[in-house]
Amino acid sequence: xxxxxxxxxxxxxxxxxxxxxxxxxxxxxxxxxxxxxxxxxxxxxxxxxxxxxxxxxxxxxxxxxxxxxxxxxxxxxxxxxxxxxxxxxxxxxxxxxxxxxxxxxxxxxxxxxxxxxxxxxxxxxxxxxxxxxxxxxxxxxxxxxxxxxxxxxxxxxxxxxxxxxxxxxxxxxxxxxxxxxxxxxxxxxxxxxxxxxxxxxxxxxxxxxxxxxxxxxxxxxxxxxxxxxxxxxxxxxxxxxxxxxxxxxxxxxxxxxxxxxxxxxxxxxxxxxxxxxxxxxxxxxxxxxxxxxxxxxxxxxxxxxx
Amino acid sequence: xxxxxxxxxxxxxxxxxxxxxxxxxxxxxxxxxxxxxxxxxxxxxxxxxxxxxxxxxxxxxxxxxxxxxxxxxxxxxxxxxxxxxxxxxxxxxxxxxxxxxxxxxxxxxxxxxxxxxxxxxxxxxxxxxxxxxxxxxxxxxxxxxxxxxxxxxxxxxxxxxxxxxxxxxxxxxxxxxxxxxxxxxxxxxxxxxxxxxxxxxxxxxxxxxxxxxxxxxxxxxxxxxxxxxxxxxxxxxxxxxxxxxxxxxxxxxxxxxxxxxxxxxxxxxxxxxxxxxxxxxxxxxxxxxxxxxxxxxxxxxxxxxxxxxxxxxxxxxxxxxxxxxxxxxxxxxxxxxxxxxxxxxxxxxxxxxxxxxxx
Lengths: 306, 359
Known about the structure:
The structure holds 2 protein chains of 2 kinds. Chain A is mainly alpha-helical. Chain A has helices at 3-30, 38-56, 59-83, 88-107, 132-137, 141-159, 161-171, 173-178, 183-209, 221-231, 236-258, 265-287. Chain A is globular, with a radius of gyration of 20 Å. In chain B, 50% of the residues are buried. Helices cover 39% and strands 17% of the residues of chain B. The N and C termini of chain B lie far apart (44 Å). Chain B has 2 domains: 2-9 and 26-131, Response regulator (Rossmann fold), CATH 3.40.50.2300; 133-255 and 285-343, Response regulator (Rossmann fold), CATH 3.40.50.2300. Chain B contains 11 helices and 12 strands. The longest helix of chain B is centred in the first third of the chain and has 18 residues, at 2-19. The chains are: A mainly alpha, B alpha/beta.
């Protein structure tokens, strides 16, 4: 296996959990709901995903358990912020703290256990093609699934009536409500979808990336996913670019260190974050106005008048 | 949960004080402050194993409690004080960053005994303890040099602090004693704990030609990468054989139970004194996991080295130690480097090509 090939493979794997979690958050934010609990939903997804796969021996059931767990936590968030109109920022932060705690509890019995990770795709002939074979046809199923979800979201947001309604609700819930759209119900579905994706992204870690459970194993990836949504200026296509860019810088700096490039590792480790900031600046510059792409009602509570 | 329990204890204690005089023969209460979750399968997990060790040894003669996920720095002061206030007479604070808070609380509670792990500040009622992890790394270096076909070792580092650097140096000195031309590639991940990143670093090292991996981070991620890629690796903090049945050569296992048992016994016997304990293979504060996946002659060599270090015949930093720049390091410990030189180590030994980041 060539060095470049293995770097690309590592980048794809490192980016996938970020992409999955960011996808869900993108949809929730497009509906106008800012859920800062991504990290919490991811870690609970990771714990439940591992538990499910360990108990049943099935990666698919593990992934479903992760999705269900993320969605369950998101349901709590929806109940509070949509049902009871509680502040979204505070609730989201609380959700992360809650998620980290619950995941430790769920995972306590699984520390030190391991499972066989998700198998990689193998198509005789195609996968064996030098260089591109492994990259295109030799990934684990989550990598393909994440890209399929991105395409699905793009199609939903820009090519369906329901997607148009969702965007309208995110921009101006009062008008959407006046037109008779069920604002809270749609927002709740968007939040649940966000939770499911975050749960799946979290479950990717113990099911495919590093097949074991350890408390806190998401290690801040939920926060990076949140930043990626802004980075992508709420557009699914850019999300892919952002996630892979972030993954690429992360992996390349490790390789640079191993190759003995004489740059302090502390600086190298901060490179992915610097790159994110840089791109944000460039985007807001070229757009003229920072945050112009943000859903207009993002993070604001909406209480429909009856 | 624990916090709530302690709150309850506090209330019960206050009640007890106001209504009746406490019985003379109270159980000794022993408290622990943990940095991570007990489910980290690394540093904190091994301290928890130590706590379970004293519970098993003393049974209902003692009562133990712990607070996990306690942040280092000022935050920890409250946690430590909480234990002191609720009648704990012996308190172990198990991370370097608890040093100053422990000193502070120890001054406030002169009749409580404190034990700080990996620090250097002591007081009448505050002792310190740590383990000579570098001894185990010397053995690992020798094994790695024997097992490596490419002659390149891969090292996943956390932060370039003396503890980690002395580990790297000890590994290389061990490896050089077998193969003077051995090379090491070092990747710093700048975190103690991020399994994904640790795995990525391990993959990068393998891709760049390393065929034996070692790590100074806390999760078994690097071990799993080695297993998946058909390479070798060493476990850290705990025995990680389960994660690399074909990959693990051995592991450094932190073993605090003997120390904890000893100190609890001293408190029970009223013989506790403030001491500075830096145990190693000889006191069994660190154990080597079974030597696996190697031929008998390598295993024999490892066992001999372990015995030699244990008996004091061999010191990993025996003089002369030559630094990266070719200068000979002053030999303050007689025949080997002095303890304070190892505890403050901030140079690479000769044979490492890379530079310490930020230097």
